UniProtKB/TrEMBL annotation:
GO terms for molecular function: NADP binding; proton-translocating NAD(P)+ transhydrogenase activity. Residues 6-472 form the NADP transhydrogenase beta-like domain. It is a multi-pass membrane protein. It catalyses: NAD(+) + NADPH + H(+)(in) = NADH + NADP(+) + H(+)(out). Pfam families: PNTB. This is NAD(P) transhydrogenase subunit beta. It comes from Lolliginicoccus lacisalsi.
Length: 477
């Protein structure tokens, strides 16, 4: 049986890695996801085969049923606009599960004093469990805050106050981190429920303090940094799972956790580079939620509005049109209308491309997923580095709810909070049409000079309705 379990684990790990390779490109992403899912199914089956105490089968089956009942419906019903929230929530559940496993291991070993006949070294069990308890708690509570921010459950004024007091949270987190470390060392060395009635309280204190640290880490982080935060929390959940797997001597958890931790760390680093900021700068000095000190229109800029008919005429006689999607496109569920618009323009001989910024939307790849859902050609989706050289040759650029990733202040204004962040060079286009409900700022909470530029006109209203009106005008031409 042990040989069979190991063979199944090897097959599962191979499928994990092969499936992950598929996620590197949009054409193979769905297939890669299915392959990895099959691998996880095999890993679960192998783990069930390895269970020696059949008395736990009722609990195991009950856990599987509860997981399916609670997990599948949200995954099916969640709209694409809410996918970042679902990712954050599921990631948090993973971290919370790891923290509970660490707690259960503490109880099962009588405070790391009774390993039920195990004669090998136990340091990896103790260290792995305590690391999993801390990091899993941080990931769980931090992910819940990320979910609340993405779901807009927090009051906007409260969010601004939290971001403004980031230094206070930094000091508190240092204290909490030191307290967690001290308690973990005490538990690992001295905790003995047989002789110390308070031992069980210490492990609970560790979980609570680490959870509070998770709250305090994410609460003051602004919305502009949230895609990076989601990726970082995902990496932490993976590392905590691997650590718990080390404590339990579970190969599946170790390998799967390390794959998630490594891939999440790489993605976090790539996202941070896309914003030209270090990960510590994001965690300890986030921006977002506050307004710029000076309004852009104070410099003399004027906002010009346009109509659907004028926008249609501009696009119909253009040689090249670039569409820049942002979260506004997701909110309005305008991806299908945008696809129809692109098809109409291409029928008229206009070349249409889609410019994708790495941190557009609320999670990595958010815009790619939305456009793929509307069957936009993968070849038409261009990454920032590939498309930026095209803007100065573009007749019309359509910006749909993308604020910060098109803000030229990141390039031109050293005093701007987003200065140095790579952006899409939309301001170099001959004409820019921005689709927005109003003049509200983006995640970073700062004005966008692009909206006041001479070549820019604003088409106000719901993005889906605005695009539909443009489509009607194009058909009438």
């Amino acid at each position: 049986m042990d040989t069979l379990v190991n063979v199944l684990y090897i097959i599962a790990f191979s499928l994990f890695i092969y499936g992950l390779m598929g996620l590197t490109g949009p054409r193979t992403a769905v297939r890669g996801n299915w392959i990895a899912a099959v691998g996880m199914g095999i890993a679960v089956a192998a783990t069930l085969l390895a269970v020696r105490d059949t008395g736990n089968w009722i609990l195991i089956v009950a856990g599987l049923v509860v997981g399916v009942v609670l997990g599948v419906p949200p995954a099916i019903r969640t709209k694409m606009t809410e996918m970042p929230q679902l990712v954050a929530f599921f990631n948090g559940v993973g971290g919370g599960t790891v923290a509970l496993i660490a707690w259960a291991e503490f109880l099962d070993t009588d405070g790391f004093t009774n390993f039920h006949g195990y004669e090998g070294p136990v340091v990896h069990i103790i260290v792995g469990s305590l690391f999993a308890a801390i990091v899993g708690s941080v990931s769980f509570w931090g992910s819940l805050v990320a979910f609340a921010k993405l779901q807009e459950l927090l009051n906007k004024n409260l969010e601004k106050k939290l971001v403004a007091n980031v230094k206070t949270f930094q000091v508190a987190n240092i204290i909490l981190a030191l307290a967690s470390l001290v308690i973990a060392i005490y538990i690992g060395i001295n905790a003995d429920p047989a002789n110390d009635p308070t031992a069980a309280i210490w492990i609970l204190a560790l979980l609570v303090i680490a959870g509070t640290m998770g709250l305090f880490v994410v609460l003051p982080i602004g919305g502009a940094d949230m895609p990076v935060v989601i990726s970082l929390l995902n990496a932490l959940t993976g590392l905590s799972a691997a650590s718990a797997g080390l404590a339990l001597n579970n190969t599946a958890m170790i390998v799967a956790g390390m794959i998630v931790g490594a891939s999440g760390s790489i993605l976090t680093n790539l996202m941070a580079k896309a914003m030209n900021r270090s990960i510590p700068a994001i965690i300890f000095g986030s921006f977002g939620g506050s307004t710029s000190a000076a309004a852009v229109d104070d410099a003399g800029g004027t906002v010009k509005s346009t109509s659907a008919s004028d926008a249609a005429i501009q696009m119909a006689y253009a040689n090249q049109v670039i569409v820049v999607p942002g979260y506004g496109l997701a909110v309005a569920q305008a991806q299908h209308a945008v696809k129809e618009l692109a098809d109409l323009l291409e029928e008229k001989g206009v070349e249409v491309k889609f410019a994708i910024h790495p941190v557009a939307g609320r999670m990595p790849g958010h815009m790619n997923v939305l456009l793929a859902e509307a069957e936009v050609s993968y070849d038409a989706m261009k990454e920032m580095d590939d498309i930026n050289g095209e803007f100065n040759r573009t007749d019309v650029t359509i910006v749909i709810g993308a604020n910060d990733v098109t803000n030229p202040a990141a390039r031109n204004d050293p005093s701007s909070p987003i200065h140095g962040m790579p952006i899409l060079n939309v301001d170099q286009s001959r004409s820019v049409i921005v689709l927005k409900r109003g003049m509200s700022s983006g995640y970073a909470g700062i004005e966008n000079p692009l909206f006041f530029a001479d070549q820019t006109s604003m088409l106000f209203g719901d993005a889906k309705k605005s695009v539909s009106h443009v489509i009607e005008e194009l058909k009438a031409l």
